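Bug report (template v2)

What were you trying to do?
Predict the complex of my protein with zinc ion.

What happened?
Run completed; filing so the output is reviewed.

Input:
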Amino acid sequence: MLEVVKGVKEKLGWETLDYTPNEKIIFPCINTFSDMVKELKKEDIDENAIEEWEKACEDSEPLFNGYPVCKEHNVLLTIFGCHVCND
Ligand SMILES: [Zn+2]
């Protein structure tokens, strides 16, 4: 996760987006997220928490369909599609 944060700070892949992320909004949030990840301990993880999330998901969602990726960008699809090509 910290490598992902590092990629955001280095604007890794930003050229593939069809918009320019607002650094004044994103960077403080990503710094807070980074601090949270650094402080996370194994005992903080509730392994049963995923059950509640799974129950809230529809059968058609990517979670239950092998984690498909966008063929153009090779990023995981969400219920909203690809976050890079906004499709
Ligand atoms: Zn895409």
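What did the reviewer find?
The mean pLDDT is 91. Residues 23-39 form the longest helix (17 residues).
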